[in-house]
Amino acid sequence: MPIDINALVAERSAEKYDLYDRHLNSQMVKVLRTIGFDRHYVRGAGAYLYDREQNRYLDLLSGFGAFAVGRNHPTVIGALQQVLTAELPNLVQMDVSLLSGLLADRLLPKLHGLDKMFFCNSGAEAVEAAMKFCRAATGRDRLLFCDHAFHGLTYGALSLNGDDHFRDGFGSLLPQCSSIPFNDLMALDRALAAGDVAGFIVEPIQGKGVNIPDDDYLKEAARLCKRHGALFVVDEIQTGIGRTGRFLAIDHWEVEPDMVLLAKALSGGFVPVGAVGMKKQIFNKIFDRMDRAVVHGSTFAKTDIAMAAGLATLQVLEDENLVENAAVVGEGIKSDLAALIGRHEFVKAVRGKGLMIAIEFGAPKSLSLKAAWALLEQANKGLFCQLITIPLLKQHRIMSQVAGYGMNVIKLIPPLTLTQDDRAWIRRGFEQVVADSHRVPGAIWDLGRTLAAHSLKARSSAA
Questions:
Q1: C-beta separation of 185 from 220 below 8 A
Q2: For the chain: N or C, fewer Cβ within 10 A?
Q3: Which CATH class is domain 74-319?
Q4: Residue 264 annotated in active site
Q5: Which among 59, 235, 258, 304 is annotated as catalytic?
Q6: What would the pLDDT profile of 53-83 be if each residue is shown by its tens digit?
């Protein structure tokens, strides 16, 4: 008897959090219930989520950037439906995939100077592949990454993670992986000078904190890598596919890398997919003989549904001018948020490109606000941001979250389909919630004391 997924969801939807608590990650359930994010969403469309009462929410997380073209885009759904009903000879392992060739043909011209493509299943897999490819192509072992970098959580990718919060507790990681400060050309030059570096893997804009480089950093980093015989690898897993108002973030600085890593938005959010674009001479050093034709790969890489979703996503970006829309709407949102600086003591900076935007908060000058800020910082560094994100969701139905562990930065990575009406929605929500956070005592600081107590209790239990 065929399974009826719709009936199953309808029958047991109320059990969602109980099932997850019992069989999966109970700590995640505790987090969501503590901050009031334990909603029951029943539908997603474009930039919006809908709950059981059909209330509409503006999703500024977009699956951590996976839904760049919006949730459940009909063009991508149509492509997937065609593949699923066409009975294509999918994953014939002793054969080659037509759809992967077509996707590479559409994608590579957007990756200036790159002419070979390797597909895989995720961003972390793309990073793992790049690590192997750098070593194979150069004959060297050492890999460089930046402080505060995030390249994934698999074993190899974690070895390039610049945040100890993710690394702690997992034992020794891969050797020959060295951290250097982001946006520091002198540190990069010193690290490269030893002559043993296979590759420098860097996010053009760091996702954890939305840290933007100086204008000359990436171009000069590429030049230094070339001079010292190392490969310059750009991780565009979150910043790519139009996120920053250009197809690739490095296009803002007119840089040509040796390798580009893509994932997340490439399939419209429907199917796990990853991609590594590279120069032909690198590819040919890895797959250099017939007996090495399968020296690196993955069972589900190049699956037809992922490749079709990628083709459809690129089509949507072009048909709806979403890269251009990200640039225009994103600049407007940045301007709206920057207007809060000076008017409100907690707001310290606004930065970003396109629809990858950060609003940073910091210690105030007023004595009453200082005391309130210190209470939260003592309980858990970065906790203040929850005094913004929780009311944004509860009062304004805007979903957002912190940009990284232990930092007072909120990151916005919404779908590229945002409208000017959505921009106004964001402006109204932030203006009210940020203003409310400056009223001490007040309802928001009642929430702050509750969160501080939860955080201190959790730390005490862990100790």
A1: yes
A2: N
A3: alpha beta
A4: yes
A5: 235
A6: 999 999 999 999 999 999 999 999 999 999 9
